[in-house]
Amino acid sequence: MNQAIKTDDEKLAPLREDGVVQYINKKYEPDPEFQSPIVAGKEDPWTSWALENDNGFKMDIETAKKQGLPKSLELYNDPGYLIYGLGVYHQLHCLNRLRKSFYPDVFYPNMSTEQVEIHKNHCFHAIRQALLCHGDISLIYWWDPSFTYIDDDGTERYTEDYLQKTPRERQVGLHASWSSEVQCRDLDAINTWVKERMVDPDKYGGRDGD
């Protein structure tokens, strides 16, 4: 019989200890802000989000030991405190790096091709591991909302266009949809907890949102 191994995420990790891990019901929906074209000189919402939320946080040494957290470096400008981060921020950082690598002239005008490429394989692998680990079981489906309409009696009916198509014609060229109801961890609560303990970036040379 296989016995599950407890990971750091399942131990009394800081966020669980403080009751921060909560769940909210959401729906996957397109967000135009994060799908908008890249425009030089225009504020980039991905980078703005990272600068606002992607923070390292500090934990005093005794508390870290008591909670059995992995070893980490002591902050040289905050003696007695260790620095930690969260996997979700690392994964979003990697996704953003991959996205930016498609627009090197906008985001990395002073970097060589080698410098831009160096992060890619690491980030692909980090995101792959996260996706496989969390195993999202929300449903993907193939349907066009224009296939149906609501009549005057409030009954859903198929459109003439749908009825005149063959089964093959209904399927060809149809894109997958992922607008499913899902249960997500409340990231606002997580962000708030981290910000209350965040490492002051001005003490360590600032940050650039990458």
From TrEMBL:
Pfam family, one: UstYa
GO aspect biological process, one term: mycotoxin biosynthetic process
Taxonomic superkingdom: Eukaryota
Pathway in which this enzyme or protein is active: Mycotoxin biosynthesis
Family: Belongs to the ustYa family.
Protein name, as recorded: Tat pathway signal sequence
Organism whose genome encodes this protein: Aspergillus eucalypticola (strain CBS 122712 / IBT 29274)
